[in-house]
UniProtKB/TrEMBL annotation:
<protein>
    <recommendedName>
        <fullName>DUF2834 domain-containing protein</fullName>
    </recommendedName>
</protein>
<feature type="transmembrane region" description="Helical">
    <location>
        <begin position="53"/>
        <end position="71"/>
    </location>
</feature>
<keyword id="KW-1133">Transmembrane helix</keyword>
<keyword id="KW-0812">Transmembrane</keyword>
<keyword id="KW-0472">Membrane</keyword>
<feature type="transmembrane region" description="Helical">
    <location>
        <begin position="83"/>
        <end position="103"/>
    </location>
</feature>
Length: 104
């Protein structure tokens, strides 16, 4: 079940990966910073897309966390199953994303 949840969880994981690898290393964080000659690591396209990526990360992250809470906490508690086993299996959620990233 958690591996299946990992496929749609790939969207917020990819968005977080993009922010960490493309946006965070940049020297500029605002369009006004592009005019400064001492900044060498500035990309207007990355800067332009950052706000949309952050918004999508927040929206998809909330839905993914809700699904994880439902599948790994609420359903097992209702059925009287051990919660520790389900939460331990939640570590499988990033596996599909890691495979897709390794193949890319």
């Amino acid at each position: 079940m958690n591996l299946g949840l990992g496929v749609p969880a790939g969207v917020p994981l990819y968005l977080a990966w993009w922010l960490l690898t493309k946006y965070m290393p940049m020297d500029c964080k605002r369009p006004e910073d592009l005019t400064k000659p001492e900044l060498t690591n500035c990309n207007y396209t990355t800067l332009d897309h950052a706000s949309g990526i952050m918004f999508l990360l927040a929206v998809t992250g909330i839905f993914t966390l809700a699904f994880v809470a439902m599948i790994d906490v609420i359903i097992p508690l209702q059925r009287g199953r051990r919660l520790a086993a389900w939460l331990g299996a939640a570590t499988l959620i990033p596996v599909p994303f890691a495979i897709f990233l390794a193949l890319a």
